[in-house]
């Protein structure tokens, strides 16, 4: 009988630790979520200034970064649940009717319209230097797999400092043309990847994991 390969074998992530993605190769990734701006609403001079600052940011980096835009269908379930709870609290019949009519309007509107939400991310990498695995892939830091936990923690902390310096450089560069950025924490990263790999389960929460 043919045996299939577990889905996890195709996912390059070894673990998520302190909000940092540790790949099976030993490389690290930090993920920033950023605000956005609409260039179309700015004057021509403002547009040129923004583009110049963006160009300066890219030219100032000595490492690659990845831009990622995620589009999701608007999930109104939490809002509808809040309205339902509110309906149970009010005592006036007229207000109850108005809330239920409003809920019906929102549901019909979102069912008929393809309303999307967009989130903007920047992925910042760091590749630890030093030894490697056979075949040329980096195997310096398979964090958490070493028998020496103290050495493992020291190696991870050293690499994290380097990565966080890169994150700071990118964040400061974004501020110069009016964008804000925040590094995702462990639970936020887990949720992001869970919904990427399970697009049909957008309403479900990602499973909780313990950091190691």
* Oligomeric state of the chains present here: single chain
Shape: extended
Low-pLDDT stretches: 131-143
β content, as a range? 15-25%
Q: What's the domain count? A: 2
Report the biggest beta sheet as strand number plus sense, adding barrel if it closes: 6 strands, antiparallel
Whole-Å distance between the termini?
36 Å
Q: What would the average pLDDT be, to the nearest integer?
A: 81
Helix content: 40-55%
The H/E string reads: EEEHEHHEHEH
Count of beta strands: 6
Structural class by sheet pairing and helices: alpha+beta
Tally of contiguous helical segments? 5
The Rg value, from CA coordinates, equals 23 Å
Concise account of the structure shown:
The protein is α+β, with helices and mostly antiparallel strands and 212 residues long. The chain is 42% helix and 18% strand. It folds into two domains: 147 residues, no CATH class; 40 residues.
Describe the protein's architecture and organization:
It is a single chain. With 212 residues, the chain is an alpha+beta fold. It has two domains: 7-73 and 117-196, no CATH class; 75-114. It has helices spanning 44-60, 77-89, 93-112, 149-175, 186-197, and strands spanning 13-17, 20-23, 28-34, 66-73, 116-126, 181-183. Strands 1, 2, 3, 4, 5 and 6 form a six-stranded antiparallel beta sheet that branches. Helix 2 (77-89) packs antiparallel against helix 3 (93-112). The longest helix is centred in the C-terminal third of the chain and has 27 residues, at 149-175. It is extended, with a radius of gyration of 23 Å. It starts with 12 loop residues before the first strand and ends in a 15-residue tail after the last helix. The model is unreliable at 131-143 (pLDDT under 50).
């Amino acid at each position: 009988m043919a045996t299939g390969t577990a889905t996890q074998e195709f996912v390059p992530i070894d673990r998520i630790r302190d909000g940092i993605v540790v790949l099976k190769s030993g490389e690290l990734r930090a993920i920033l979520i950023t605000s956005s701006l609409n260039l179309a609403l700015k004057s021509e001079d403002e547009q040129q200034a923004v583009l110049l600052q963006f160009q300066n940011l890219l030219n100032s980096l000595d490492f690659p970064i990845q831009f990622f835009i995620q589009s999701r269908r608007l999930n109104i379930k939490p809002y509808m649940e809040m309205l339902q709870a509110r309906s149970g609290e009010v005592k006036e019949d007229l207000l109850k009717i108005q809330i239920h009519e409003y809920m019906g309007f929102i549901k019909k509107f979102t069912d008929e319209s393809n309303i999307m939400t967009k989130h903007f991310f920047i992925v910042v990498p760091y590749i630890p230097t030093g030894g490697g695995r056979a075949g040329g892939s980096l195997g310096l830091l398979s964090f958490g797999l070493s028998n020496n936990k103290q050495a493992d923690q020291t190696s991870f902390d050293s690499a994290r400092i380097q990565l966080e310096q890169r994150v700071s450089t990118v964040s400061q560069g974004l501020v110069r043309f009016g964008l804000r950025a925040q590094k995702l924490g462990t639970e936020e990263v887990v949720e992001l990847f869970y919904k990427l790999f399970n697009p049909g389960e957008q309403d479900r929460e990602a499973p909780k994991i313990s950091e190691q």
